[in-house]
Amino acid sequence: MAGQTQFDFFDVDHTIIRGSSGPLFLVKGVQRGLFPVLTLAYIPFFFFQYSVGSLNAHSRDWHFSLLTGQSRQALEEVSRANFEKLKDLIYPAARSLIEQLKAAGRRVVLATSSLDLIVRPLAEHLGIKEVIATSLEFESDRCTGRLAEGPLLKEKKREKVYDFIRAHGGQWQDCAFYSDSINDISLLESVADPVAVNPDLRLRRVARKRGWRILKFR
User: Fold this and answer.
1) How many structural domains comprise the chain?
2) Which residues neighbour 45 within 8 Å (Cβ) at sequence distance 6 or greater?
């Protein structure tokens, strides 16, 4: 029933942490010899596409050749090593807010477009048990280079969050969502308490126009 379960969904990059988790993971993989050095050249182009909203959230054709054939164990080891850097990027204000929400009995969930294997160590560190994120496809514990269900972007991310809410007996009016990005506008519009955290220029304009809360974590 509405009102019995309260959910706080958090984006990760630029919301809980300074910067983006994906590039850090790739850099760590290059340092450990798992990915080729050329990988670093693609990072700016990919994230420029994300920032302008040109990535296709519904495509099942995404393929990352550098991940093809990599074992789950090797990728998780890179993720754990990467977390030593990632944890230093957590905004103290974000950590404090999450602790306050949990202490108040609210259910805090990560909802991010980043890979689940990258953000799960972060979730465990913050005491967050549930993660909604993009997942890699594995066959016999080897990565195919594809995403299991495509990238969790825009409407796809909203759909996954809604599926989670329904599966746990909630409704949109029970929920808050914290994000920095205009890419999450459909999800922000759906919840009862949309919160713009370190918002990009487009999201800041929308948040101000609609009277949404705006938080600045430093």
Assistant:
1) 1
2) none
